[in-house]
Amino acid sequence: MTTYTGVNHLAMATGDLDRTIRFWRDLLGMRMVAGLGRAGYRHYFFEISATDMIAFFEWPDVEPGPEKDHGAPVAGPHTFDHVSIGVASDEDLWELKDKLDAAGFWVSEIIDHGFIHSLYSFDPNNIAIEFSASVAEMDVRARPVLMDKDPTDVAREGAEPRSGQWPPVTDPLPRGQRRIYEGMGSELAEGFK
C-alpha cells in the first residue's frame, strides 16, 4: 500500500510574487525553501512543516480571485474552497490573529468546531486560509467520527480504505522501462547528482 507523508505542496497562483513572499514568509513566518523559473513564470515554495509546503506560480496576468467566505456554497465551475494549515496550539492562533490584524488583513474570531479551533483569513491573492489547532481530547485521526445526519451509503462503509472498489493493476510498468524526466526545478539538483 502507498505510504503518504503529508501534502508535499499545494500549488496556487499569484500575479504579485513579492507581496505573496511578504505574506507567507515574513508575516506568517514560513521559510521560502525553493525559488524557480524566470520573470513571467516563477514557482516558489514555502515550508509549512517538515513534510508540507505551499507553492505559488507567478503568472503576470493573474489577478486575485473574488473574495469568497470559507465553506460558503457556490454554483458552477469551482475546484477549491480553502486551505487549512495546522498549528500546534490555541496560543499560535492568538499570535496569528494579532499578526494578521496588525498587518491590516481581515481575520475572524477564533471558532470552536469541536475537534479543532480555527482562525480564518485571506492571503493577498484572496486565497481563503484557515489555521487550525487540534482539540486533544477530540482526535478524529485516532477516533474517526461520522456525525452526518444523512450520510451516503459509501460514507457509511466507514473510515478505512476499502479494496476492490477500483480495477486492480494487472500490467504494471516493468522496472526496466521506468523513466524519470527532467522538469522545471531539476536545476536545483545540479552538483548533487
Which range best describes the helical content: under 10%, 10-25%, 25-40%, 40-55%, 55-70% or over 70%?
10-25%
Please report which band the strand proportion falls in: under 5%, 5-15%, 15-25%, 25-35%, 35-45% or over 45%.
Answer: 15-25%
Contiguous uncertain segments of 5+ residues: none
Count of helices? 3
Shape: globular
Specify the structural class.
Answer: alpha/beta
Radius of gyration: 20 Å
As for the CATH topology of the domain at 81-136, it is 2,3-Dihydroxybiphenyl 1,2-Dioxygenase, domain 1
Q: Could you tell me the mean pLDDT?
A: 88
The CATH homologous superfamily of the domain at 81-136 is termed 2,3-Dihydroxybiphenyl 1,2-Dioxygenase, domain 1
Task: Please specify the SSE layout and strand pairing.
Layout: E1 9-14, H1 17-27, E2 32-38, E3 41-47, E4 53-58, E5 83-87, H2 90-102, E6 111-112, E7 116-122, E8 128-134, H3 153-156
Parallel strand pairs: 1-4, 5-8
Antiparallel strand pairs: 2-3, 3-4, 6-7, 7-8
